[in-house]
Amino acid sequence: MLRRAFLAVSAGVLATAVQVAPALAAPTPPPGPGPQTDPLPDRFRSKLAAPPVTATGRARGLVIGGDQGAHRIWVMDAGRRDWTPGADPRAVRWSWAPTEEAGFGDVLAGWGAVSDVRVRTAGRRTYVLAGDSWGYVGAVEYPSGKRLWAVNAGRPSNVHAAELLPDGNVAAAASTGGWVRVYAASQGPAAAAYTEFKLKGGHGVLWDPRRRSLWAIGDDDLVELKVGGTASAPTLTEARRVALPTQGGHDLAPVYADRGRLWVTTNFGVYQFHKRSGTFETDYRYAPSVNLPIIKSVGDNPVTRQVLLTRPKVGCATTWCTDTVELFGRTSWNATRTLTGAQFYKARWFTPRYQ
Known about the structure:
The protein has 355 residues and is mostly beta strands.
Protein backbone atom coordinates (compact mmCIF):
# COMPACT_ATOMS: atom_id res chain seq x y z
CA MET A 1 0.00 0.00 0.00
CA LEU A 2 1.02 3.58 -0.54
CA ARG A 3 0.28 4.97 2.93
CA ARG A 4 3.75 6.19 3.83
CA ALA A 5 5.09 9.58 4.87
CA PHE A 6 6.95 11.35 2.12
CA LEU A 7 10.66 12.06 2.50
CA ALA A 8 12.71 14.85 0.99
CA VAL A 9 14.09 13.80 -2.40
CA SER A 10 17.30 14.53 -4.23
CA ALA A 11 17.49 17.68 -6.30
CA GLY A 12 18.89 15.83 -9.28
CA VAL A 13 17.79 13.36 -11.86
CA LEU A 14 18.40 9.80 -10.69
CA ALA A 15 21.86 8.51 -11.50
CA THR A 16 22.51 6.14 -14.35
CA ALA A 17 23.24 3.17 -12.09
CA VAL A 18 19.74 1.77 -12.60
CA GLN A 19 18.56 -1.82 -12.35
CA VAL A 20 16.75 -3.27 -15.33
CA ALA A 21 13.49 -5.07 -14.65
CA PRO A 22 13.06 -8.59 -16.02
CA ALA A 23 11.88 -8.62 -19.63
CA LEU A 24 8.11 -8.90 -19.92
CA ALA A 25 6.09 -9.55 -23.03
CA ALA A 26 3.97 -6.61 -24.07
CA PRO A 27 0.29 -7.22 -23.31
CA THR A 28 -2.08 -7.80 -26.18
CA PRO A 29 -4.33 -4.74 -26.44
CA PRO A 30 -7.97 -5.44 -25.65
CA PRO A 31 -10.31 -5.93 -28.62
CA GLY A 32 -12.26 -3.01 -30.02
CA PRO A 33 -11.28 0.58 -30.68
CA GLY A 34 -9.86 2.64 -27.87
CA PRO A 35 -10.30 6.37 -27.49
CA GLN A 36 -8.04 8.64 -29.47
CA THR A 37 -5.72 10.28 -26.96
CA ASP A 38 -5.50 13.72 -28.53
CA PRO A 39 -6.36 14.10 -32.24
CA LEU A 40 -4.66 17.12 -33.77
CA PRO A 41 -7.08 19.73 -35.14
CA ASP A 42 -6.75 20.06 -38.90
CA ARG A 43 -5.52 23.65 -38.70
CA PHE A 44 -2.41 22.46 -36.84
CA ARG A 45 -1.39 19.73 -39.31
CA SER A 46 1.19 22.07 -40.83
CA LYS A 47 2.88 22.32 -37.42
CA LEU A 48 3.87 18.65 -37.26
CA ALA A 49 7.53 18.32 -36.30
CA ALA A 50 10.31 17.05 -38.54
CA PRO A 51 13.31 16.72 -36.19
CA PRO A 52 16.65 15.34 -37.47
CA VAL A 53 16.62 11.65 -38.31
CA THR A 54 19.96 11.06 -36.55
CA ALA A 55 20.67 11.92 -32.92
CA THR A 56 22.33 15.27 -32.33
CA GLY A 57 23.85 17.26 -29.49
CA ARG A 58 24.68 16.54 -25.85
CA ALA A 59 22.36 15.50 -23.05
CA ARG A 60 22.54 14.04 -19.56
CA GLY A 61 19.93 12.31 -17.43
CA LEU A 62 17.30 9.62 -17.69
CA VAL A 63 14.05 10.05 -19.63
CA ILE A 64 10.79 8.16 -19.05
CA GLY A 65 8.00 7.86 -21.59
CA GLY A 66 4.94 5.76 -22.44
CA ASP A 67 5.01 4.07 -25.84
CA GLN A 68 1.48 3.66 -27.20
CA GLY A 69 2.72 1.46 -30.04
CA ALA A 70 4.57 -1.09 -27.92
CA HIS A 71 2.13 -0.64 -24.99
CA ARG A 72 5.09 -0.19 -22.65
CA ILE A 73 6.87 2.30 -20.45
CA TRP A 74 10.52 2.92 -21.27
CA VAL A 75 13.34 4.55 -19.28
CA MET A 76 16.17 5.73 -21.51
CA ASP A 77 19.55 7.34 -20.97
CA ALA A 78 19.71 10.70 -22.76
CA GLY A 79 23.49 10.49 -22.63
CA ARG A 80 23.39 7.56 -25.08
CA ARG A 81 22.61 8.59 -28.63
CA ASP A 82 21.13 5.35 -29.98
CA TRP A 83 17.96 4.34 -28.17
CA THR A 84 17.19 1.44 -30.52
CA PRO A 85 16.63 -1.62 -28.28
CA GLY A 86 19.64 -3.89 -28.53
CA ALA A 87 21.86 -1.38 -30.35
CA ASP A 88 23.36 0.04 -27.16
CA PRO A 89 22.87 -2.11 -24.05
CA ARG A 90 23.13 0.97 -21.81
CA ALA A 91 20.62 3.10 -23.68
CA VAL A 92 17.35 1.52 -22.50
CA ARG A 93 17.48 1.18 -18.72
CA TRP A 94 14.02 -0.18 -17.93
CA SER A 95 10.92 -1.39 -19.70
CA TRP A 96 7.62 -2.34 -18.14
CA ALA A 97 4.04 -3.27 -18.93
CA PRO A 98 1.37 -4.83 -16.69
CA THR A 99 0.63 -8.54 -17.06
CA GLU A 100 -1.88 -10.93 -15.59
CA GLU A 101 0.95 -13.03 -14.15
CA ALA A 102 2.22 -10.00 -12.23
CA GLY A 103 -1.19 -9.39 -10.67
CA PHE A 104 -2.74 -6.84 -13.04
CA GLY A 105 -5.45 -9.03 -14.58
CA ASP A 106 -8.27 -6.84 -13.25
CA VAL A 107 -6.97 -3.68 -14.99
CA LEU A 108 -5.49 -5.03 -18.25
CA ALA A 109 -8.55 -3.93 -20.23
CA GLY A 110 -7.52 -0.36 -19.40
CA TRP A 111 -3.97 -0.70 -20.76
CA GLY A 112 -3.28 0.05 -24.41
CA ALA A 113 -2.34 3.72 -24.92
CA VAL A 114 -0.14 5.16 -22.17
CA SER A 115 -0.73 8.89 -22.10
CA ASP A 116 1.49 10.09 -19.25
CA VAL A 117 4.13 8.74 -16.87
CA ARG A 118 6.10 10.29 -14.02
CA VAL A 119 8.35 9.32 -11.11
CA ARG A 120 7.76 9.92 -7.40
CA THR A 121 9.33 8.73 -4.14
CA ALA A 122 7.88 7.89 -0.74
CA GLY A 123 9.18 5.91 2.18
CA ARG A 124 12.62 5.54 0.52
CA ARG A 125 11.06 3.84 -2.49
CA THR A 126 10.60 4.98 -6.06
CA TYR A 127 7.28 4.72 -7.88
CA VAL A 128 6.21 5.10 -11.49
CA LEU A 129 2.78 6.67 -11.96
CA ALA A 130 0.93 6.14 -15.25
CA GLY A 131 -2.33 7.20 -16.84
CA ASP A 132 -3.61 5.43 -19.95
CA SER A 133 -6.19 6.64 -22.46
CA TRP A 134 -7.89 3.26 -22.26
CA GLY A 135 -8.56 3.71 -18.54
CA TYR A 136 -5.62 2.44 -16.50
CA VAL A 137 -4.46 4.60 -13.59
CA GLY A 138 -1.78 3.12 -11.39
CA ALA A 139 1.44 3.20 -9.41
CA VAL A 140 4.15 0.54 -9.47
CA GLU A 141 7.38 0.19 -7.57
CA TYR A 142 10.53 0.92 -9.55
CA PRO A 143 12.37 -1.09 -10.73
CA SER A 144 10.54 -4.24 -9.55
CA GLY A 145 7.27 -3.36 -11.31
CA LYS A 146 5.39 -4.55 -8.22
CA ARG A 147 1.82 -3.33 -8.07
CA LEU A 148 1.11 -0.78 -5.39
CA TRP A 149 -2.26 0.41 -6.65
CA ALA A 150 -4.24 0.40 -9.91
CA VAL A 151 -7.80 0.80 -11.22
CA ASN A 152 -9.46 0.92 -14.61
CA ALA A 153 -11.33 4.22 -14.95
CA GLY A 154 -12.87 3.10 -18.25
CA ARG A 155 -12.12 3.88 -21.88
CA PRO A 156 -14.73 6.64 -22.27
CA SER A 157 -12.83 8.77 -19.72
CA ASN A 158 -9.60 9.02 -21.77
CA VAL A 159 -7.23 9.32 -18.80
CA HIS A 160 -4.38 11.76 -19.45
CA ALA A 161 -2.37 12.00 -16.23
CA ALA A 162 -1.77 10.58 -12.75
CA GLU A 163 -0.08 12.03 -9.67
CA LEU A 164 0.90 10.66 -6.26
CA LEU A 165 -0.26 12.70 -3.25
CA PRO A 166 1.51 12.92 0.14
CA ASP A 167 -1.05 10.70 1.90
CA GLY A 168 -0.60 7.90 -0.63
CA ASN A 169 -3.71 8.72 -2.65
CA VAL A 170 -3.54 9.22 -6.41
CA ALA A 171 -4.92 12.12 -8.45
CA ALA A 172 -5.86 11.69 -12.11
CA ALA A 173 -7.20 13.80 -14.98
CA ALA A 174 -9.30 12.69 -17.94
CA SER A 175 -9.97 14.70 -21.09
CA THR A 176 -13.08 13.11 -22.59
CA GLY A 177 -14.52 12.44 -19.14
CA GLY A 178 -13.85 16.05 -18.23
CA TRP A 179 -12.77 15.37 -14.69
CA VAL A 180 -10.07 15.47 -12.03
CA ARG A 181 -10.27 12.73 -9.42
CA VAL A 182 -8.51 11.81 -6.22
CA TYR A 183 -8.62 8.07 -5.67
CA ALA A 184 -8.31 6.64 -2.15
CA ALA A 185 -5.33 4.58 -3.30
CA SER A 186 -3.89 4.57 0.22
CA GLN A 187 -6.64 2.13 1.23
CA GLY A 188 -5.43 -0.83 -0.80
CA PRO A 189 -3.99 -2.03 -4.16
CA ALA A 190 -7.38 -1.95 -5.89
CA ALA A 191 -9.20 0.73 -3.87
CA ALA A 192 -11.72 2.31 -6.25
CA ALA A 193 -13.36 5.05 -4.14
CA TYR A 194 -12.75 8.59 -5.37
CA THR A 195 -13.87 12.19 -5.25
CA GLU A 196 -14.37 14.08 -8.51
CA PHE A 197 -14.06 17.66 -9.71
CA LYS A 198 -15.39 18.55 -13.16
CA LEU A 199 -12.88 20.16 -15.52
CA LYS A 200 -13.49 20.41 -19.25
CA GLY A 201 -10.75 18.58 -21.16
CA GLY A 202 -8.78 17.52 -18.07
CA HIS A 203 -5.20 16.98 -19.25
CA GLY A 204 -2.83 17.28 -16.32
CA VAL A 205 -2.45 17.22 -12.54
CA LEU A 206 0.49 18.29 -10.38
CA TRP A 207 0.90 18.35 -6.60
CA ASP A 208 2.44 21.54 -5.20
CA PRO A 209 4.08 20.76 -1.82
CA ARG A 210 4.74 24.40 -0.92
CA ARG A 211 1.15 25.52 -1.46
CA ARG A 212 -0.34 22.18 -0.40
CA SER A 213 -2.45 22.33 -3.54
CA LEU A 214 -3.27 20.20 -6.55
CA TRP A 215 -2.94 22.07 -9.84
CA ALA A 216 -4.96 20.85 -12.82
CA ILE A 217 -5.14 21.94 -16.46
CA GLY A 218 -8.04 21.59 -18.88
CA ASP A 219 -8.98 22.88 -22.30
CA ASP A 220 -9.52 26.46 -21.15
CA ASP A 221 -8.40 26.86 -17.54
CA LEU A 222 -5.69 26.24 -14.99
CA VAL A 223 -7.21 25.52 -11.58
CA GLU A 224 -5.77 25.21 -8.10
CA LEU A 225 -7.58 22.66 -5.96
CA LYS A 226 -7.44 21.98 -2.25
CA VAL A 227 -7.55 18.35 -1.17
CA GLY A 228 -9.54 17.90 2.02
CA GLY A 229 -11.39 15.20 3.87
CA THR A 230 -9.49 12.10 4.92
CA ALA A 231 -7.27 9.62 3.12
CA SER A 232 -10.19 7.20 2.91
CA ALA A 233 -12.73 9.86 1.93
CA PRO A 234 -10.95 12.77 0.17
CA THR A 235 -12.59 15.94 -1.10
CA LEU A 236 -11.67 18.50 -3.78
CA THR A 237 -12.44 22.21 -3.56
CA GLU A 238 -11.62 24.89 -6.11
CA ALA A 239 -9.37 27.61 -4.67
CA ARG A 240 -8.37 29.46 -7.83
CA ARG A 241 -9.10 29.47 -11.55
CA VAL A 242 -7.09 31.25 -14.23
CA ALA A 243 -8.06 31.31 -17.90
CA LEU A 244 -5.34 29.97 -20.19
CA PRO A 245 -3.75 32.54 -22.51
CA THR A 246 -4.64 30.43 -25.53
CA GLN A 247 -6.98 27.48 -26.09
CA GLY A 248 -6.27 23.78 -25.75
CA GLY A 249 -4.36 23.09 -22.54
CA HIS A 250 -2.07 20.06 -22.71
CA ASP A 251 0.78 19.78 -20.24
CA LEU A 252 1.37 20.96 -16.68
CA ALA A 253 4.81 20.53 -15.10
CA PRO A 254 7.07 22.10 -12.49
CA VAL A 255 9.69 24.65 -13.49
CA TYR A 256 12.63 23.26 -11.54
CA ALA A 257 14.67 26.40 -12.15
CA ASP A 258 12.03 28.52 -10.37
CA ARG A 259 9.68 27.03 -7.78
CA GLY A 260 7.35 29.97 -8.23
CA ARG A 261 6.48 28.91 -11.76
CA LEU A 262 4.78 26.10 -13.68
CA TRP A 263 5.21 24.97 -17.26
CA VAL A 264 1.92 25.18 -19.17
CA THR A 265 1.40 24.18 -22.80
CA THR A 266 -1.56 24.77 -25.11
CA ASN A 267 -2.22 24.16 -28.78
CA PHE A 268 -0.62 27.51 -29.48
CA GLY A 269 2.44 27.78 -27.26
CA VAL A 270 4.54 27.02 -24.19
CA TYR A 271 4.22 29.32 -21.19
CA GLN A 272 5.50 29.67 -17.66
CA PHE A 273 2.76 30.45 -15.18
CA HIS A 274 3.78 32.73 -12.32
CA LYS A 275 1.93 31.41 -9.28
CA ARG A 276 1.96 34.64 -7.31
CA SER A 277 0.94 37.09 -10.05
CA GLY A 278 -1.27 34.66 -11.96
CA THR A 279 0.34 35.65 -15.26
CA PHE A 280 1.56 33.54 -18.16
CA GLU A 281 4.99 34.51 -19.41
CA THR A 282 7.11 33.71 -22.46
CA ASP A 283 10.35 35.44 -21.51
CA TYR A 284 11.92 32.35 -19.95
CA ARG A 285 15.30 30.86 -20.83
CA TYR A 286 15.44 29.10 -24.22
CA ALA A 287 11.97 30.40 -25.11
CA PRO A 288 12.90 31.06 -28.79
CA SER A 289 13.45 27.31 -29.19
CA VAL A 290 10.83 26.00 -26.76
CA ASN A 291 7.81 28.28 -27.28
CA LEU A 292 6.20 26.23 -30.06
CA PRO A 293 2.65 25.09 -30.89
CA ILE A 294 1.21 21.61 -30.21
CA ILE A 295 3.74 20.72 -27.49
CA LYS A 296 2.39 17.70 -25.60
CA SER A 297 4.95 17.65 -22.74
CA VAL A 298 7.70 19.93 -21.48
CA GLY A 299 10.10 20.10 -18.54
CA ASP A 300 13.53 21.31 -17.48
CA ASN A 301 16.22 19.09 -16.01
CA PRO A 302 16.77 20.01 -12.32
CA VAL A 303 20.55 19.74 -12.72
CA THR A 304 21.48 20.74 -16.28
CA ARG A 305 18.44 23.01 -16.93
CA GLN A 306 18.15 21.41 -20.36
CA VAL A 307 14.53 21.55 -21.54
CA LEU A 308 12.83 18.39 -22.84
CA LEU A 309 9.73 18.44 -25.01
CA THR A 310 7.61 16.18 -27.19
CA ARG A 311 5.40 17.20 -30.10
CA PRO A 312 3.62 15.24 -32.84
CA LYS A 313 5.96 14.18 -35.62
CA VAL A 314 5.43 13.84 -39.34
CA GLY A 315 4.90 10.17 -40.23
CA CYS A 316 4.11 8.91 -36.72
CA ALA A 317 1.22 6.45 -36.43
CA THR A 318 -1.14 9.05 -34.92
CA THR A 319 -1.49 12.81 -35.05
CA TRP A 320 -0.45 13.10 -31.40
CA CYS A 321 2.65 10.88 -31.26
CA THR A 322 6.38 11.05 -31.84
CA ASP A 323 9.34 8.71 -31.52
CA THR A 324 11.69 11.62 -30.82
CA VAL A 325 12.46 13.62 -27.70
CA GLU A 326 13.75 17.12 -28.40
CA LEU A 327 16.14 18.82 -25.98
CA PHE A 328 17.17 22.46 -25.73
CA GLY A 329 19.92 24.20 -23.78
CA ARG A 330 23.21 25.85 -24.54
CA THR A 331 24.20 25.52 -28.20
CA SER A 332 25.93 22.14 -27.90
CA TRP A 333 23.03 20.93 -25.72
CA ASN A 334 20.40 21.33 -28.41
CA ALA A 335 19.78 17.66 -29.03
CA THR A 336 17.42 14.95 -30.24
CA ARG A 337 17.04 11.33 -29.16
CA THR A 338 14.89 8.81 -31.03
CA LEU A 339 13.45 5.41 -30.16
CA THR A 340 12.63 4.46 -33.73
CA GLY A 341 9.01 3.41 -34.20
CA ALA A 342 7.91 4.43 -30.72
CA GLN A 343 4.66 6.33 -30.22
CA PHE A 344 5.29 8.74 -27.34
CA TYR A 345 2.60 11.23 -26.39
CA LYS A 346 4.50 12.61 -23.41
CA ALA A 347 7.98 12.04 -22.02
CA ARG A 348 9.61 13.43 -18.89
CA TRP A 349 12.91 13.67 -17.10
CA PHE A 350 13.27 10.77 -14.68
CA THR A 351 13.19 12.81 -11.49
CA PRO A 352 10.98 12.37 -8.42
CA ARG A 353 10.84 16.04 -7.49
CA TYR A 354 7.46 17.73 -7.38
CA GLN A 355 8.95 21.24 -7.65
